[in-house]
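User: Predict structure, ligand magnesium ion.
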Amino acid sequence: MKISKLGEFGLINMLKQFVPVSKTVIKGIGDDAAVVPYSKSEYLLITTDMLAEDTHFTRRMPPQGIGHKALACSISDIAAMGGWPTFAVVSIGIPKNLPVSFIKDIYKGIQEVARQFNVSIVGGDTIKTDKIVINVALLGLVEKKNLTTRDGAKAGDVIFVTGPLGGSFKSGRHLSFTPRGPQARFLVENFKPSAMMDISDGLSGDLNHILKASKVGARLDHAYIPRHQGVSLSQALNDGEDFELLFTLSPQKARLLMDWQTQKRAFYFYPIGTITSDVKEKIDTKSFTHF
Ligand SMILES: [Mg+2]
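Assistant: Predicted complex:
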């Protein structure tokens, strides 16, 4: 069988069988980041992302944006667990004909977002490749009480997103987005989301991950899904690369959040649907698949 037939999640499930996991691991494969023991009050978060030329970016795109994205999408995953990023290693595969300035600019992009989010780059590796490949492995921390995973959504919970969706790739937003770290911290400290993840593959597909992990269904109110200008509903549902947070709140907390944001605030959160007990209520997907 070819990898393309297996699909990304089929592949991950197959590989899972060969991955040893000790009992001390809090969360392994299957959330935005892995969760492992750290201290009495905190967990260590680990996530990694790989970007490849002609799959995730092309040489005609601004190299600084490519670097920005390489680190920002990992910061987004740490935020989705309720935590904050700390240390990263960056590895890069470089074709020998590539202008030095291109790599320099990729690192400038990485540096800028690292500074903004207080991430120290503490190592990495470089190899010669046919196409540019960038891999970021990022650590983060989260208080045990603030850890937010995908499996806690309950029937009746309200589904929210942190911002408008769709058209990210076409508009170039996928190279300049700001990870929703401050929003995630605000939410876990004040509203305790029952489940949270970031939208990388598209709202419809990603929401299904929460539904599956939480063993619930959902109904979306299409009219309430915030979209970027000129973006269709289908694009908002399926485009992906938005890196907005998708989270669920109990009806009581949802009401408190809606009350809070009746006044002008630093953040705005969009209610877009409801969690149901019917596991057959899945979201229709034509979500981005990697293979
Ligand atoms: Mg994610």
